[in-house]
Amino acid sequence: MESLAGESVVVIGSGIGGLSTACYLADAGADVRVIEKNEQLGGRASRLERDGFRFDMGPSWYLMPDVFERFFADFGHRPSDYYELEHLDPHYRIFFKDGDRVDVTPDLERTKAVFEEYEPGAGETLERYLEKSKENYEVGMEHFVYEDRSRLRDYLDLDVARQARGLSLLGSMQGHVEGYFDHPKLQQIMQYTLVFLGGSPTNTPALYNLMSHVDFNLGVWYPDGGIGSVIDAVVELGTELGVEYDTDRPATEIKGHTGGFEVETATGPVHADLVVSNADYAHTEQELLTPERRGHDADYWEQRTYAPSAFLLYLGVEGDVDELAHHTLVLPTDWEDHFEQIFDDPEWPDDPAYYCCVPSETDDDVAPDGHSALFVLVPIAPGLEDTPALRDAYRDTILDDIAANTGTALRDRIVLEERFCIEDFADRYNSYDGTALGLAHTLRQTSLFRPPHRSTAVDGLYFVGGDTTPGIGVPMCLISGELTAEKVLEDHGDGSRP
């Protein structure tokens, strides 16, 4: 790795992308300071702790363990140096609203048998589907995720064309899955991971069938203590490398250029040679930079397709909730209306698909004895009206829906309740229209069509996080940190090793 010795860098925002970048730049010899708006590090992967209950406020699925292994290996470590993993069984449970229940387990043969119950021959079809998914994953990760092809000319290469030849690049996930499975419930099982990409079956490219390899083959894991433990691990690694962290220090303006940046904050300016923003991309450009220093204007951001926001209930309840697995999905038998109410005709879904996370099923430390900790996440359109009255009404709708479709009565056992919704995402994370995830992975917002890591208007300013490549999700943001650091090193490394 080239050296950045003598360079100072301020990283604005401490999401997983910013924390990752900070580690790579500090390892290259830079003097790195991370400034964070909120009271704790982690960005959307914050923790909520109340009265003996502990919740991951945002990401809660530990997927793609190979990405974490590679990240820590870059610094001579393993994930197990910082946290332990448990392979979940089942990976997740699905309640369909017509009374069916499906457990997806680590045992592929059991899963194939479940598929056969719905559609003769679907078990072997699943095996073929996963073979293609694995191929897409391996080729895609090596040649199109860890290698940042952010310009059109990066694709005008015979080697790139050869690697891409076997990938399912075009078409939608809906069309791709329909080519394998006829039964709508099997199609839903193969497509639910799109929620992690902030898309729908009709607007997400077929390339993302690679997520099925992540799900079925690589497995679903739980880091002891939750995703917050992963944040703690990356922060600890950064500390070992010399990164310094400031919380409760929101940035208010970015001035200057390479060698002379001044980042104004609520507690005084921070001076640095280089700046990396892990704040929401649109917020950085529209609020922290003057118009002539923006790479995109307001129209650009207004015309993007955004991933959903979410209505979240964090609940501490008396007793067990054994009907629910650690990860549980509740799906209407026809979920097209829900996606339409997110992407086409935005409104609060009247027959929602939603997710319940019950970490206390796996981890005794997240709830007091005799209690369960769970949260409920309902994807909803960003930018909707979000009022206390709407939240009250929707809370009752969701509690009734959980009782009716999973057999889990929560209402009379709740001892702790917190809510989080559109206005909170906008206020806490400065997210555009209160989106929970950022830019969705539509065909026109994938790969080189996402905003770049380098600012196109300010030398020495860089971006990292889910709005850049490779995109949304904790593993992708971890990789985004590596890609952003590579850009900084290409531009400012001195050719020697630190």
Characterize this entry briefly.
InterPro entries: Amino_oxidase, Carotenoid/retinoid_OxRdtase, FAD/NAD-bd_sf. With 498 residues, this protein is of the alpha/beta class.
Your description of this structure?
Keywords: Carotenoid biosynthesis, Oxidoreductase. Pathway: Carotenoid biosynthesis. One of its GO terms (molecular function) is oxidoreductase activity. This is Phytoene desaturase. Residues 16-489 form the Amine oxidase domain. By secondary structure, this protein is of the alpha/beta class. It folds into 3 domains: 8-84 and 225-304 and 442-492, FAD/NAD(P)-binding domain; 108-218, no CATH class; 305-429, Guanine Nucleotide Dissociation Inhibitor, domain 2 (2-Layer Sandwich). Helices cover 34% and strands 18% of the residues. The chain contains 15 helices and 19 strands. The chain has helices at 16-27, 65-73, 108-118, 122-145, 158-164, 173-178, 184-191, 210-218, 227-241, 281-288, 298-302, 336-343, 388-406, 422-429, 474-492; strands at residues 8-12, 31-35, 47-50, 53-56, 85-87, 92-96, 101-104, 221-223, 244-246, 251-255, 261-265, 270-272, 274-277, 309-318, 327-331, 354-357, 371-380, 414-420, 461-463. The strands form 5 sheets. A 7-stranded mixed sheet has the order 7-6-15-16-17-14-18. The protein has a 5-stranded parallel sheet with strand order 9-2-1-13-19, covered by helices on one side. A hairpin with a 5-residue loop joins β10 (251-255) and β11 (261-265). The longest helix has 24 residues, at 122-145. The radius of gyration is 22 Å and the shape is globular. The protein starts with 7 loop residues before the first strand and ends in a 6-residue tail after the last helix. The model is unreliable at 154-158 (pLDDT under 50).
